[in-house]
Amino acid sequence: MTWRASAACRDVGVEPFFAKRTSPEGREAIRICSTCPVRQECLEDCLATERIRIGIRGGLGPQERDQDAKPSRRRRDAR
After folding, report:
1. Residue 37 carries which DSSP code?
2. What is the CA radius of gyration of the chain?
3. Is the Cβ–Cβ distance between 59 and 39 less than 8 Å?
């Protein structure tokens, strides 16, 4: 079983996760992510694969993910 099977969003449509963060739908996506037991795994998958550059993943939008990833990328590049 993958982490996706335990995701709080597994039975939710994709629309809230591709809405603006400040819209009612975007706030709903963030609320769903905030209660998700695999939020960290989702975020790590998104940062590691960079498959999806838009939308809310792991409770963060693209700009937030970029900010979150910068320190770890710097550490990785310094090796």
Report:
1. T
2. 13
3. yes
Q: Which residues lie below 8 Å from residue 17, measured CB to CB, with a gap of 6+?
A: 9, 29, 55, 56, 57
Contact between residue 50 and residue 66 where contact means Cβ atoms under 8 Å apart: no
DSSP 8-class letter at 10: T
CB atoms within 10 A of CB 55: 18
Q: Indicate the helix (H) or strand (E) that contains 47.
A: helix 39-49
For residue 63, the model assigns a pLDDT of 85
The structure's pTM equals 0.76
DSSP state of 1: -
Report the candidate in 61, 67, 66, 52 with the shortest Cα–Cα distance to residue 25: 61
Beta bridge partners of residue 60, listed in sequence order: 57
